[in-house]
Amino acid sequence: MQTHENQLTQERVESVQYRTFSLLHVSDLRRRKCGYSTMMFDFLIISAALLGIGYAVLWLTVLKMPRFKRSVKLNGKTVIITGSNTGIGRATALDLAKRGARIILACRDKQRAEMGAGAGIVYMHLDLASLQSVRSFAENFLKTEPRLDILINNAGEISFFSDGLGMIFGVNHIGHFLLTVLLLDRLKACAPSRVVTVSSRGYEIGNIDFECINAHKDLGRGNSALSLLRLYTHSKLCNILFTHELAKRLEGTNVTCYSLHPGAIRTEIGRHANLLWKMVLTPIMALFFRDVESGVQTTLYCALQEGIEHLSGRYFSKCAVQKVRAKARDDATAKKLWEVSERLSGLA
Ligand SMILES: NC(=O)c1ccc[n+]([C@@H]2O[C@H](COP(=O)([O-])OP(=O)(O)OC[C@H]3O[C@@H](n4cnc5c(N)ncnc54)[C@H](OP(=O)(O)O)[C@@H]3O)[C@@H](O)[C@H]2O)c1
User: Fold this and answer.
1) Could you tell me the distance, in angstroms and rounded to a whole number, from the CA of residue 156 to the centre of ligand 1?
2) Is the minimum distance from the CB of 333 to ligand 1 under 6 angstroms?
């Protein structure tokens, strides 16, 4: 009897011990699990804070765009801006109009351009993809407008459609080349005057293959989105070399010229991209690109800043002159590009 009771007590003790152990084990597991989640939570919070700080630093340094603050007045002056129905061109037109300039919106889409037309802002049809259209525009302008003080070659094409072969080189460089040459006498007659050409920092990965231009009247071949992007960078290198050579040819005329990078700016520039590219570009633009107002500042600087005449032919970014890579200041390439452009645009 005594032995049986002892055995029962022993069993009870063991059972209590077992339950206590189980409970301790479970709570230990829970505590450990809890520890891991707390650590993970802390890690996420710290990572998010570091990312936020990094992003803020990037936004306030690399992506920061200085403002052109001079209150230069332009009463009695006339400015042509290509591609001014949207994006950087439109914002430039609105700013210069507020300063009193007569603005010529040189655009290919009358309806879109006329949204911005008003007192002192006039639409004139210009399709830079057609040499005939460039000639008609210049003829019409020279016949109807007595002055030209600032020419802003702003329009830019980065069509992602395969039938756009030759288009990027044609619009971004050849069209602007012909337009500028046809208007040079009027610019000289109204000197001091300026030619401002909107290029891109993308020029750094561009190059010019003259054999390809001779064979295909284009800067390269291919119709994938990436190859078209490459053509865009080549055309932006052309903008800088064109300005480099133009400055030499304008020496002593009091007409000066500048090329520039406007910054990474949220505009409609990727509107022809396919869905995949749009899905990639949209978040990048939202996070890392500045607003259109920021994109206008360097154009305003090049068009209006006093005392930069000795920097004619140079490339600007963030409202300051910048040193360009050797390929963008090579005299021989710039001269050759000028001669090829004369031939392709029917001037020689
Ligand atoms: N946004 C950026 O981050 C960035 C960076 C570096 C350089 N850029 C340069 O900045 C300039 C302005 O670009 P954006 O960003 O303001 O682009 P956007 O919003 O796409 O504006 C481009 C303008 O060019 C016009 N255009 C295109 N093809 C034309 C043609 N054949 N004839 C006449 N006009 C034509 C467009 O007219 P439609 O509306 O009729 O198409 C539009 O008005 C471009 O030269 C671009 O290369 C921009």
Assistant:
1) 4
2) no
